[in-house]
Design brief:
3 domains; alpha+beta; 4-stranded mixed β-sheet; 54% helix; single chain; binds zinc ion; CBS-domain
């Protein structure tokens, strides 16, 4: 995924941080250092302490990293349930509004989805309650010793982790996509309804919810609420589309929709660009595998975009091997077509080579996949 870095691996899942997540982390560090928001006896910031700004920032950094680790734990709890039920999770990317797990397949099993979706908010609530108990047991803050006082710093940190985990847990239980509550709701409805209908209903409920939240945000001039409403609205819509693709392509494999080997057109590496352009006009394909012959390993892939980078006057001297892309992105013929679609979208490319045992067996394009979906036409296309 673009704009993210890997920070480690847990249970075979690579943990990635998206740049938006790091940005929010920095905002939180600053926020906790300069604020002293009070809830009851709890103080949720280090500003009130009689210490230097550097020390406040230091405490705030520790509290923020601890809090963000609990967000990671929330995401891991979803994946932990999935792994235990035999689903393969490759990576988790933490975004500004939580995480996205990269899964090979989506569980279409309502009971599993219910447990998976509920695990996250449940863990956040448990962390919130436990740290609250810690606060109550060791608290409250020593008002006289609000200065450089380790006990106070620990209690403020516990308060922050407690309150924000409770907020996170409750917010995620809102019955709207893309929050966990939306998934819980869909899974619950899917116990009785077909999966797509359950998704549609959960999406409408989520959209209505977002709409009401937006109106309320406008009336109270609460910018954050309006932003969340917009985020929830588009999240719901995205979920509907994703589910539509996933369901329409269910059971369809790459080999069912690809251009098979016998119909493949390839170009040799020593062809000139002029020869290639001629082939493009004749066969009306925009991309070709580059190889000596079909039984040899594919050397690369060459597309119309590559051609455009070469000035016309060099078309007779430059060869295909000079401009082709050598890093080949491929799928196996046995992969799900839906997975191929995700790979195409993720890398923003036109076509994937289908490779088995190091030999090319076909090519699959976005068009091949879409055409197949139109044939099935189980449901009208969601807009
Ligand atoms: Zn979650």
């Amino acid at each position: 995924m673009k704009w993210s870095i890997q920070i480690g691996k847990v249970m075979g899942i690579s943990i990635r941080l998206h740049i938006t997540f790091l940005f929010i982390l920095i905002l939180f560090i600053y926020y906790f250092a300069v604020i002293d928001l009070k809830i009851g006896t709890m103080v949720l910031g280090f500003n009130g302490m009689d210490i230097s700004l550097t020390e406040k920032l230091l405490f705030s950094t520790i509290a923020s990293i601890l809090f963000f680790s609990t967000i990671l734990l929330h995401e891991l709890s979803h994946s932990f349930v999935a792994k235990r039920k035999g689903l393969n999770i490759q990576s988790i990317t933490l975004f500004v509004f939580g995480g996205v797990a990269q899964m090979e397949e989506i569980p279409r099993n309502p009971k599993l989805e219910l447990t998976m979706a509920a695990a996250g908010p449940a863990l956040s609530l448990v962390i919130g309650i436990l740290t609250y108990a810690f606060y109550v047991y060791f608290g409250p803050l020593e008002v006289d010793g609000i200065g450089m006082n380790t006990k106070n710093a620990i209690l403020i940190t516990a308060g922050i982790i407690s309150v924000y985990n409770l907020v996170l847990g409750i917010f995620n239980l809102l019955p709207a996509f893309p929050m966990d509550g939306g998934r819980v709701l869909r899974a619950f409805l899917a116990l009785w309804l077909p999966y797509m209908d359950a998704t549609r209903m959960a999406v409408s409920i989520g959209k209505t919810f977002a709409f009401l939240m937006g109106i309320f945000g406008l009336l109270t001039i609460n910018l954050i609420l309006i932003l969340i409403a917009v985020f929830v609205f588009y999240g719901a819509q995205g979920e509907e589309r994703e589910t539509f693709f996933a369901i329409s392509l269910e059971g369809i494999k790459v080999k069912d929709v690809m251009t098979p080997r016998q119909d493949l057109i390839y170009v040799p590496p020593d062809w000139t660009i002029s020869q290639l352009v001629e082939a493009m006009f004749r066969f009306k394909h925009m991309g070709y595998p580059v190889q000596e012959d079909l039984d040899k390993t594919t050397l690369g892939i060459v597309t119309f975009e590559d051609v455009q980078k070469v000035p016309k006057e060099h078309h007779d001297s430059v060869q295909v091997k000079d401009i082709m892309t050598r890093a080949i992105i491929s799928v196996s013929p046995e992969n799900e077509a839906y997975q191929a679609l995700q790979t195409i979208a993720k890398h923003n490319i036109g076509r994937l080579l289908v490779i088995k045992d190091d030999r090319i067996t076909g090519i699959i394009t976005m068009k091949d996949i879409m055409r197949n979906m139109q044939f099935k036409h189980m449901h009208p296309f969601p807009d």
